[in-house]
Amino acid sequence: MFINPYQNFTEADIPLRANFHTHAGTGRRTCGFHRLKDVLQNYQRTGYQILCISNHNCNIKKIGKMIFPDPLKFRHYAKDLMQVPGFEYSFTPHVVVVGTKEFLNKDGLHQEAIDLAVNAGGFAVLAHPHWLRDDYLTKENMEKFRGYAGIEVLNGSMEYARCVFQERENKCYAGDVLDYLLSKGLLKWAFANDDFHRWNHLANAWNMIYCKKTPEDLYRAVRQGEFYASTGVSLSYLRLENGVISMACRNGEYVKEPMRYRFIGFEGKLLQETEGTEASYTLRGDEKYVRVEVVSPSGTMLITNPVYDDAFFRK
Ligand SMILES: [Zn+2]
Ligand SMILES: [Zn+2]
After folding, report:
1. Could you tell me the CA-to-CA distances from 306 to 139, 190, 220, 264, 266 in Å, in that order?
2. 199: domain range?
3. Any domain includes 314
4. Which of 128, 238, 288, 299 would be 164's cystine partner, CB 3.0–4.6 Å?
């Protein structure tokens, strides 16, 4: 049976905007160069409701405690922004660990880092799969690690972050990695994060999450895949009825304009490409999964989580 993570949501359901990968408050000559207060306030002003400051664990000696800001302690800087704790496990390959106040600072403990998040009720995301080189995130690691929620299908701090994200030579895009995982029967989700270091990374790529503004409901929604990745395109609805996937998007909050809808399936195969203000795809039944990438005329995009055949995915 095909499962649609967006089945319960209509245009009336407003998802919350979230970035889980942010470096801030660690001082000069570090990744988190900008002041925590300024970063929190600017995310709030830009329209975010959820933020995780996820500094590098390896900076601990240099900067001490400030690298893992306690969300409650710094709440007064941006009261409307729900902060969740976390860090970036920064031994290759990097892992964004969300939902725990503990951290690890030793190489080779990737699985333990993922488990820290999961055991605290949170989640872990494998970061920037194509950073430095195409196979930064190796197939071996992707298949070996257990329990992570997904990958950064978009990373907003990589080169050409402002260009169309889908170009293959553009390393901030990793839809191909997601297709690899899904085609292996590993049900993983598509995250988009700024990986904020400097102001030009602010609000490049984000997650829209159908949840209440509590950490528990956020983590629940993420586990269920009830969110999508975006660089500016919003989802109006994505339905699955009588074997037909139908969806509509808008540019930003309100603008309805024709967009390119790309329905992608097993092993990254392009199943259908449609241009219009809405699109639909009729399931044959043997797809295993169908995910959609939507590109607006201005080059902004949206990447959905897969509609998936639960018989194929062993959760
Ligand atoms: Zn990183
Ligand atoms: Zn980072």
Report:
1. 20, 9, 17, 9, 11
2. 2-7+14-228
3. no
4. 299
Measured in Å, residue 5 CA sits from the centre of ligand 2 at: 28
Give 132's contacts (C-beta < 8 A, 6+ positions apart): none
131 CA distance to ligand 1 middle (Å):
8
The alpha carbon of 195 and the centre of ligand 1 are apart by a number of angstroms equal to: 7
Question: How far is the centre of ligand 1, averaged over its atoms, from the C-alpha of 289 (Å)?
Answer: 29
Residue 180 domain flag: yes
- Average pLDDT value over all residues in the chain: 92
Spatial CA neighbour of 86 closest among 111, 105, 68, 64: 68
pLDDT at 67: 66
User: What's the full length of the chain, in residues?
Assistant: 315
* Distance of CA 305 from the midpoint of ligand 2 (Å): 22
The neighbourhood of ligand 2, an ion, using CB within 5 A, equals: 88, 195
Sign of the dihedral through C-alpha 99, 104, 107, 108: negative
21 within domain boundaries: yes
- Distance between Cα 90 and ligand 1 center (Å): 6
The answer, yes or no, to whether residue 168 has pLDDT greater than 80, is no
Domain count, the chain: 1
> 139-163 in b/e burial notation, b at 16+ Cβ within 10 A?
eebbeebeebbbbbbbbbbbeebee
Q: Is 270 contained in some domain?
A: no
pTM flag (> 0.90)? yes
Does 66 score more than 70 pLDDT? no
The CATH number assigned to the domain holding 129 equals 3.20.20.140
